[in-house]
Structure formats: C-alpha cells, structure tokens
Structures
1.
Amino acid sequence: MSSIAFIGLGNMGAPMALNLVKAGHEVVVFDLVADAVARLTGAGARAAASADAAVQGVDVVITMLPASKHVEGLYLEQNLLGKIPAGALVIDCSTIAPDSARKVAAAAQVRGLEMIDAPVSGGTGGAVAGTLTFIVGGAPAALERARPVLEKMGKNIFHAGEAGAGQVAKICNNMLLGILMAGTSEALALGVANGLDPKVLSDIIAKSSGRNWATELYNPWPGVMEHAPASKGYAGGFGVDLMLKDLGLAAESALASRSSIPLGELARNLYSLHSNGGSGRLDFSSIVNLYANDRD
C-alpha cells in the first residue's frame, strides 16, 4: 500500500481521503480547518502540522483545493514541490484553469516529479460512495501509476490528454451541468406555477425526452428526492460559488479559444445573480429559487 499525503479536506476531499484510509493506505492529512483534520484522524489517518510536514517521506501527494490561486500558491509560491520527495507522484484533483494546471505540472517536471491533473465529477455522494469519475490530464505512464489509488476513490477514470486536458474536459462538463440545472429548475418552476405536482412532473420528465442527471439523481425541488440537497435546505453538496467559479473558467477558456458559449454565459450570469443574492454557500441546485421566487 502507498503512503499518501492528502491536502484539502472539504466536502469532497474529506470523504475521498477517508476511502483511501478504508482501503488500507497510510494517509497523512492536512487542512486549515482543524475539525476536518480531527474527523480524518478519528478514522485512522495521521495528522500533519503543515502541508510541508504532510509530504515528508510519502509516495503520493493528492490535493483538493478550491481554485487556481490556491493550487499555484501551495505548489509554487509556498514551494511545496520543493519539499516533495524525488520520484513521488503528484495528483491534483482541484478544478482549476487549464493554464494553471500546465504551469504547475511543468514546474513539477523540472523537479523530477510526475504530476497529473485529475478533477472529479460525481458530487459529494460520489465522493462518499467511492464512485467518482476522474478526468485526467498528464502522461499516460503517470496515470497508470496513479490508477490503483484513484480506483479506491472512483469508479470511472478517463484520460483526456496531456497536462491541463483534464481541466478542459471538467470545465466543459460543469458548464453543461450548470446549464441543465438552470433549465431543469426553470421547467419545474413553470410546471408548479401552473398547478403541477413537482414530483409528478419530475417523474414525467425523467421518463421523457427532457430527462437529465438533475431530474434523475439531484432534483432541485425540495421534497422530490429525499437525499438530494434540495430536501436538506440546500446544505452541503456543490456550492453556488463553486459552480460560479467553474462557469467563470469556461468563460475564460472561451475567450482564449475564441469560442461561443451563449448558454454558458447565461448560466454564469444566473449563478452570479443567485450568489449576489446571498446564496453563494448553498448547493448549486438552489438556483431553482430564482424562478420559484418569481411567483411571490
């Protein structure tokens, strides 16, 4: 079994690290939030006082951080790459700008380290169940080396291409996710405003041509799906501000490649309105409240 440093124990990182502990790996954890570290040490992980301390003597380093500035800050500005043992494998599971992923991977290569960008899809439920999808950018040999570790946290592993390609694919996926959640919310709100039961309408859509991930697994209307964040006050899950960040990354990528993303930009504006209204920390499915509140 590998010795693994896991840095970043948020809603996604904590259950991912826990699955590695359950699989028998020696896992050293670090996070700025002490309670997050305590939960993992209670499950069998070892705590480190800092990110630098966490990577000492490990075979694999995994990070799950909020944004590009945190990844570049940790690996480059704080020079974590310079503290990682030679020959170790570095796996960044954060969703960040492709150029940031390429920049850090190039610096890792200079230091003799193999690194892949491996952002995930599947939400907190997938993180807990160990059924995440990993979307990987980097050298094929590095992916094969990472595969035994990734398989303990996920069910599907895709190689998108070279460094940064995993981030490009993840950005495309999350842009579509934001669009379909906004569209599903709009359709449900319209139906309810015209007297339909949201669960009945959701069942109809799920068996018709409008079916999608939101109607089948992550319904945005409260009470339709017991285990969805919508039925828990939109707590946990994938935050509005994180979706807004990812839609912003899509906009940046579109500008850089001169691509047209009219629906992606519309979704970004909707999530910006929703966040500015005080819902930034709620689950992204709470976007339905933009439409539902129109009735008030």
2.
Amino acid sequence: MHKPEPLFDYQGHLPECPTWDSSTQSLYWTDILQKEIHCYRPESNQHQVIAMPEEVGCFALREQGGFIVAMRTGIWLTDKQGSLQQKICDNPNNPQLARFNDGGTDPHGRFYAGTYWGPRDYNGALLCRVDAALKTTVIQCDILGANGLAFSPDGRWMYTSDTPNHVIYRTALDEQGQLGERQVWKRFSLGNGRPDGAAMDSEGCYWTALFDGYHIARFSPQGELLEEHPLPVRCPTMVCFGGSQMNTLFITTTRENMSQQELLERPLSGAIFTLQVSATGIPKPKFKEN
C-alpha cells in the first residue's frame, strides 16, 4: 500500500478546497485564514500565491477563466489574478457569525457554497447554489458546519457532511437541480474522526477526510467502509483527485488551533499530501455561466 507523502515544502494555516485543473496539470487550494488562493504545478515546482481581501471558504475555476469565490461577506467572480470583477450575492448568513466553508461544482457546472456557524449554539449554517444566470438560491439549512460536497457519477445524488454533527447526508438531485429529501447516509461515533471535505471516484465511492481522526476513508455507495489511509497529522480537511491519470489523491490538512507541543510532535500539520490510489477520480467541472 502506498503511503501519503508531502506534495512539496509547504505548511499552511487552514488549507481547504483542493481543486485539480487538468488543462494545466495544476493544483489549486485556498488557505482560509491566510486569505489566499494557491496554485502549484508539480511538474515545474511552481507555486503561486494570490492574496484575497477576505477569507475564501471555497471556490471553483470558471470556464471563462478566473474563479468564482465564496468569501466571508459574499460570492464574487474574479479574474485569473484574483481581482474582483462582479459581486454575485451577499453572504445569506450573518457574515459576522458565519463564514463560507466547503463548496464546489456539480456535474452541470453550478456552484455550491456552504457556511460554518461560528457560535455553534444551534444549526444556523446553510448551503446555497449559484446557477449559470448567477442567481443564488439557499437550498438547505439545519446545518452547523457545511462540508463534504460531492456528486455521484450519474449526477443523481448530492452528498454533504456536517462536520461538527458527525454526519454525512445524501440528497436526490435531478438535472434541473431540484432536490429531494435529505437523508442521513452515515453517522460517525465520537472518537473516530469527523467527516470533513470529500471527493467522489468513478465507481461511486465517497472519499472523506476525517478531521480529528488522523486518516482518510473510502466508503462504497452503500456506506460500507472499504479503505482507510492513516496520516501523520491529526486533522485532514479535504481530498480531491488529480494527476495525469486522475488516480492521485491530494489531501489538505490544517494546523489551526494546535498547541506548540502538537506542532512539534506533528510538524507536517498544515501540509498537503499526495497518495497514489487504485481508484480513478471524477474531474471537478468548471463553473458555467451564461
């Protein structure tokens, strides 16, 4: 079995939303707390850092070039350099209490962005979607920390997780984006890690980073545990597929809220890892706009 290896000499604060661009063979990610979007090209070892005005919880590449970004106060379109071009909407939550967190695109190129409810006193976060006409709709609520967005290969199911509540949901989805009833797909007991960011492979299996769990896991479409891969850090945050054959798993991790003692014991906290796997991933579609 292959072991995870650091992608390159880098440790971020809160890296999230790894996104592989097959056209340039590049990996993008956001460091939420550093207010940055990063781009790394493994072949040339080039590393670009794009400074942003606010925390970017999630983003997607646009078909027309540049990014769609969910920042603390709202969702914007930017150019390739990260310069703000057009505001799509305000954060539908109170931005003082809830920043954007996990998100991405569905098979039709629509952009989804969920929030994280900071006070943690009730399930105050939500999930919204931006369509090709740049219309934003809140599609789910009753969430504490939106995470784990992924879509089945046939596009019929949307998977999401609520990390603080230790649960993964599955929701039916039609081509027009209409949602069925949200169902509990898998619930995690205390002490085994909390489901964070995720990715789907071509066999319909769901890969999740298990925050506080020192590992990532792969589950069958029926929720059966198929694989576990340990990590040398406590808190992986998200996974994505990439590489020339789409069988490299990129794993972001965090060093947020860790003591100096833990950082001494786990010095790779905040690094990005690569792991060669037998499964093949599904490329993330770019955001399609009219």
